[in-house]
Design a protein that fits this description.
By secondary structure, this protein is of the alpha+beta class. It has one domain. About 50% of the residues lie in helices and about 15% in strands. The longest helix is centred in the C-terminal third of the chain and has 22 residues. It is flat and about 75 Å long.
Amino acid sequence: MKWSRAFALLGGAALLGSLWLSWYERFERSDAAFIVTRGANDTESVSLLGMRELDGVAAWSAFTATDVVLATLALATPVIAWRRPSAAPLFGALALALVVFRLIEPPGPPVEHTLAIGAGVALAGAVALCGPYARYAGAPLLIAALWMPWYAADVEPPPDVGNLAAPELAAVLGSGEGVELALSTPWTLFTLTAVGLAILALAALTRIRRVAPTAGALATLLVAARLAFPPEALEPRAGAFIALGAALLAWTGAWLSVRDESTPGAAGPDVPRRAA
């Protein structure tokens, strides 16, 4: 019970503080193109031109009513955790659902965006508000993360390669099409991986002994691999790290449930008994 109250306090503070952090990073595009620079030894490097990263967007400036509701939940849930601990996770689940919705559906007109650090802080705070039920939030959060942008284009200036007209130095490939991939979800970038992660998340939800922890571990390894080896010319952003945290939470929750013998299929050890 004390741990639940402590998590409620920490979660409320994190969720409230995240409202002053940037939740989104928006991008501006103009005639974008991929540049492939070829060196003397047939080595290649990829740069993206015509794309500019704008300032981050904080929750207070982006939302109209969502920020007020989240602030109310962040302040009220710790108080409820002290008075009626059994009701506090319900408010935490409401905060988590609202944060996830806003990360998938940002307010305002549709623009190309990715997630910033404030999104991760808000999710961590909302999960902590769920108290003892936080272990069950990992798998649904991992599924929701599949609809969040994981990567953004590397918008650093291209290297100075001199005469771009020389065929051995550079070639321009496409125009604009690659940028759509740069700011899209896993369903567009790697559909088979997204399907596999969704299946593993559902398997972790079953809480069956051996199956659920194994599914959580495989999901964690799969997301970690996508972080370590991103698509070419793209770099991981907060959405990918949110997916990794969700996979770790799903793995931990499945392992704890099996350890507590609180799920179907979890059998306790055989204990020999002495004859009377």
